[in-house]
Write a structure and sequence with these properties.
The chain has a 5-stranded mixed β-sheet, with helices on both faces. It is an alpha/beta fold. It is built from 6 helices and 5 strands; from the N terminus they run βαβααββαααβ. It has one domain. The C terminus is likely disordered.
């Protein structure tokens, strides 16, 4: 699981989250970012290694960048810094205080299924990008 470059752990069942991954793949300045499904064995293990629970994964995507794990708006800002201009310029939102950024993030995150939809394993990985994805699987069914 030691893959060079930041790793984005995202909800593979969330249409918004999967769309974000497709957007990143299309707008990335250089192919450095890696991806892991939040409900995959690899995604859950990476998250747990950083003290992030399944409940946390229901509310945010995570970016593992070396020894640190970034959540909510901090994770989004790191991803923005990896995109080409003009998208990278949106990382200037880091000037907004974190509590305000995170409040906006949480507002959207709590409504993402209602607004954008949810489909089991809706992530479509382009064949030429598969090497950048760790363990894409759907969320286990509740007991």
């Amino acid at each position: 699981m030691d893959v060079p470059g930041p790793i984005i752990i995202f909800d593979t069942d969330c249409v918004l989250c999967s769309g974000m991954v497709a957007f990143v793949l299309a707008k990335e300045a250089a192919p450095r970012l890696r991806f892991a499904g939040a409900w995959s064995e690899e995604g859950l293990a990476l998250a747990a290694r950083h003290g992030i629970t399944r409940h946390d994964l229901d509310e945010t995507f995570v970016v593992i960048d070396g020894p640190r794990a970034l959540l909510r708006s901090d994770a989004a800002l790191l991803v923005l810094r990896h995109l080409r201009a003009p998208w990278r310029w949106l990382s200037a939102a880091s000037l907004v205080p974190r509590p305000l950024r995170d409040a906006a993030y949480v507002f959207v995150a709590r409504r993402r299924y209602r607004w954008f939809g949810q489909r089991q394993d809706c992530t479509v990985v382009p064949p030429d990008q598969r090497h950048r994805f760790l363990g894409l699987q759907t969320r286990p069914a509740p007991p």
